[in-house]
Amino acid sequence: MTSESPASPHFVIVGGGTAGWMSACLLARQLGPACRYTLVESSDIGIIGVGEGSTPYLRDFFRQLGLEEHDWMPACHATYKAGIRFPGWSTQPGYESYVHPFFNEADRPLGQAFIQQANLRRRGEDVDANPADFFLAAELARQRRAPVYSQPEHSPATDYAYHFDSGLLGAFLKRHAQEQLGLQHCVDTVAAVERHPESGDITALRLQDSGQRLEGDFFIDCSGFRGLLINEALGEPFIPWGDRLFNDRAIAIPTPLEPEQDISSETTSTALGHGWAWQIPLSSRYGNGYVYSSEFISDDAAEAALRAHLGPAAEGANARRLKMRVGRVARHWRHNCVAIGLSQGFIEPLEATALMLIQFSVQHLIEALQSGGGSGTMEDLRQRYNAQINQMFDGVLEYVQTHYLLNTRDDSDYWRANRTLKPCSDRLSELLRTWDQGGDFDAVLSRHEAALMYQRPSWYCLLAGMGRFPASAAGSLALPAQASTLSGLQARASLMDQTRRFFMPHREALAPMSRGLVDSLGPNR
Ligand SMILES: Cc1cc2nc3c(=O)[nH]c(=O)nc-3n(C[C@H](O)[C@H](O)[C@H](O)COP(=O)(O)OP(=O)(O)OC[C@H]3O[C@@H](n4cnc5c(N)ncnc54)[C@H](O)[C@@H]3O)c2cc1C
């Protein structure tokens, strides 16, 4: 690890939310029994308990733990996720429901055609360029099929993610960490943090109920929005992003699935009057919620708007109201403490990136600790780490903010104000300017490739999917202007065929795993 570390360092993780258990599992799995691990969580302070969508990187997380889908998906009521649909963000005719798909090997030919046509379209040519017509994931979601080939061994690679019940995922990881990875678990509330008088490092935590003094060598702050160690004990400033992202509240209401329909394989993020509403299909229910700005709408009015949006399905269901601290800390690693999860920062959940950032943060930490800093000092190591993690957070912020900048709604001050926000980086201003002026968008993407969190197809899908095209071509979804271009209808016909032939209906794909769970629980479950 590092020259300053003891032979068998003790990692103390504060917090038993998803961040705490993900961090504990990855650290214990990758650093192994050479280190000790203790996770302390309070029974008085709850977890946030939402966060049911993911990105494809979550597949690597389970792979790293050596877990197969059938090991964890049924236990977490998980389903497959092919992408996200965004109805109502754009009012451009033909672009009222934008799709951000996860990309597949099989997408190459149509994906290339889409990008070429998006470039023609933004230069005024009358060709189709809506990602909903050109990507397999969009068609899989339309047909409610799982994004997994029925014969994966003879098929191209697919990229997909999952939806899951976050409470069940936390419980699953907790069991795994204790039973398989030998982690110590302590239920108590941290009442005080002790620091070394000279170095400023954290030396121990004082626990409220047991009165115990829990010593450690390295502390992981997964205490949620409060930032118990990073903000409160170490005084690291939090940089709020209220001037870039307005939403600071959420309301969550679960609803039942429709038994007569198959389970959807996409998240739906519908723009409402003062924010947007998620719908996440699990195998047992829908997770729904409204993410909004308290500056523009009251909590009561937001709840009424969400209930109206959900209709009779939400009658009698309890609502949970949540406050969100949006922004990030300036430095994630201070002294012998790294903040991971909501304590390090949160970008509102539009692209469901929080667990991905947790995973990246732990992974980079493990690599940094294993490298020992090379020839540099510990301070160099911390600086490099902080720069890397900030780049990731800022890259996600850029992509998320673009959704708001591109909206064309005119039904509230909220949406108009979002449109007039300043882009959060010069890079984003350059990307938007180049797109709008018909310049070489690929060249700008390539120049910034190393710093972007979202790659070329995602940027094209966002800008084209919202119908950000010159007025002369907007709205005309006519037949192709050039023989070498494809109409959206032609593209979709080929996708429909592939989808029906090679992919199973979603429930059918999940069923063998659930049967496995029932078998493993035995007759007396
Ligand atoms: C509305 C909303 C929607 C979201 N949607 C998504 C999504 O779709 N996808 C996604 O990836 N993420 C999403 N997230 C984010 C995701 O929920 C969180 O990143 C994730 O749950 C991790 O939370 P956490 O573990 O950092 O914090 P928490 O869940 O808040 O856990 C904090 C832990 O710290 C403990 N603690 C606090 N103080 C003390 C103390 N003094 N002593 C001992 N223990 C203490 C608590 O007991 C608790 O166990 C969403 C978040 C919100 C608000």
User: What general form does the structure show?
Assistant: globular
What is the strand arrangement across the widest sheet? 5-4-15-16-17-14-18
> Which regions have little confidence, pLDDT < 50, spanning 5+ residues?
474-480, 520-525
Main β-sheet description: 7 strands, mixed
Number of strands: 23
Q: Which hetero ligands occur in this complex?
A: flavin-adenine dinucleotide
Number of helices in the DSSP assignment: 17
Report how far apart the termini are. Answer: 45 Å
**Strand portion:** 15-25%
Rg measurement, Å: 24 Å
Helical percentage: 25-40%
Structural class: alpha+beta
Query: What do the pLDDT scores average to?
Result: 93
Describe this structure in words.
This protein is of the alpha+beta class. The chain has 17 helices and 23 strands. It has a seven-stranded mixed β-sheet with strand order 5-4-15-16-17-14-18. The chain has a six-stranded mixed β-sheet with strand order 8-2-1-12-21-20. It has a three-stranded antiparallel β-sheet with strand order 9-10-11, with no helix packed on it. α1 (18-31) links the parallel β1 and β2 (36-41). α1 (18-31) packs parallel to α7 and α10 (354-371) runs antiparallel to α11 (378-406). The longest helix is centred in the last third of the chain and has 29 residues, at 378-406. It is globular and about 70 Å long. The two termini are 45 Å apart. Mean pLDDT is 93; it is low at 474-480 and 520-525. The structure holds flavin-adenine dinucleotide.
